[in-house]
Queue: 4 jobs
Job 1
Amino acid sequence: MKIKAVVDRIEGEMAILLLEKKSILWPLKALPRGCREGDIISIDLRIDKGATLKRSREISSFIEKLSEEEKRSS
């Protein structure tokens, strides 16, 4: 899914992007090089299945460790 945003203004190291009726702060270094106020950018949103799976495994491992620690302290 691609969405369009307008670079409303740049304040220090952050850009304020306008998305429909909302504004969001975005790190200037994460925008395309040479991006300026008034530019329209396209943002590609998609699920990163590999990162999602990795995160899920990390959380499961963390929960398992907590459960083991709880059993030992009981």
Job 2
Amino acid sequence: MGTMTEPRIPTTAAEPRGAGPRVKAARVPLHETVRDGEHLGVDATASGVRDRVGHISPRSS
């Protein structure tokens, strides 16, 4: 029998990359906030991203 390896845990940036889109650095904190929250509204999402990176622009993408 072969050697068992531990399953790989994808990084926050690797998760959406696996689905195909390009991941810009600014999108990682947004993805983390949405993933960690529970049905967050726009204001709560923006606040969560600000907590991670300091300042965000509403037009960032």
Job 3
Amino acid sequence: MKILFVVHASPNSGAISTLVNTAKIARGRGHEVSVFIMGKGVLNLTREDFIGLISDDVQITACEHSREKLGAPGNVDGVLSGSQYDLSVMANEYDRVISFIRG
């Protein structure tokens, strides 16, 4: 199964720990997992546990507009730069889309 997590939640939100744990479990069960971060979600590029998902073969794509607007780190190894168009394409290609919006 292909699972896409859309993340609006900021780094201090408890939702991010839930996301990280859920993504790791899904990968462990053989599912393809991607994360699209936007809004305050791009600030999670400062969290080591979040970025660590890359080593678990989780694709992370950051909304470039949000990243620039909020001054989140750029050029993070393994993180793709994207747009709302990219999110719409991804949402169409995945079996499940789960959104984390709090915080």
Job 4
Amino acid sequence: MDLSDSLRFLERKGCHLCDDAWEIVERLGHGGAKRVDIEHDDDLLGTYGLRIPVLLDVDFGVLAEGQWNERELRKRLKRRERRRRKAR
């Protein structure tokens, strides 16, 4: 299973931070993450509206939000990968 399958990239149209964060996601090899415009979901909008962009793992929760640090996100993704392997 591609590890990007469980990732959700929460964004809004016209969000420059979202555009920058998506470039990081792609650079780190997770361009297969599902992109979700929170404007179309009231629950997501209420929960994440002020926190976007958000990289969310459906099993492990929020990996990054707001302004991202690429180095820190890389570490979090590696930890996530190790946890997934142990869970198998």
